[in-house]
Amino acid sequence: MLTFLLDEHISLKVADQIAARRPDIIVNPLAALDGGRLLGEPDGVILAEARQRGLTFVTYDKQTVAPLLRDLADHGVSHAGVLFHDRNTTPQRSVGAIVRRIERAFDTYKDLDWTDCVMFLTQ
Questions:
Q1: Global model pTM greater than 0.85
Q2: How far apart, in whole angstroms, are the C-alpha atoms of residue 123 and residue 40?
Q3: Domain boundaries, the chain
């Protein structure tokens, strides 16, 4: 089943609101995972941990994560999926919009195998 790991730049309110609205959707904020031990770690470390746990990584960080995904693919290393937000269509302060987009992605794609999938969350 599709489960999420929110990058540290995504408000903790997103996870709180999803938990309140949709307890069937598992959302792990990076800050809460293992007491926040991955906070500040390079994205490659976070992607590896997400892969081990089967968590799809939700991030705004296309500049850093996209090249990492290409590098992983070049080396035959899988990841557990990435959902990118776009600051132009979903500002970080728009908690409600982020919540709705994650819920929509879950409802639409929850039964897919997210191994090596990359998607952009849109309206």
A1: yes
A2: 29
A3: 4-120
